Fold this protein.
Amino acid sequence: MKIKKILIANRGEIALRIIRTCQDMGIKTVALCPLEGEESNFLETRLADEYYFLEKEGSSGYLDQKRIIEIAKKAKADTIHPGYGFLAENWKFAKSCRKNKIEFIGPHFKTLKKLEDKIEAKKIARKIGIPTLQQVRAQ
C-alpha cells in the first residue's frame, strides 16, 4: 500500500519528526490542535499540510479515539500515526482504525492485545529469547 496522507495523532517533537520524514517521502500530513484559536501555539499546525481541531481543551483530545477517527475520515487520511504513548499501545484504537479502513502505523491490534498484560508480555519475551529484567538480575 502506498501511503498518501498520514494523520498524526500526537503533538510536539514527535509530530514534527513525523512531518519532516513525511515531507522527505512526499507524503501529505494532517496535524491536530486542541481548540480553534490555539493553532499558533503548535508548530506542527504550521508545518503540516493541513490541521483539524480536536475541540477539547488540553491533552484530553489526543486520547479521543472516536474524534481522531472522525477527523482522519474527514481529511481522507489513509493512515494514522499514533506517535508514542497511550494510543500507540491501545489495541482497541488499532482495531478501530482497521474497522474504519484506516491503516494504523504500529503493531497489529492482536499483537498489542497480547502485550497489554505485562505478565503475558514477559512470558512471550522469554519464549522468543528476549531477556527480561528478572533474568538479567539473576545473571
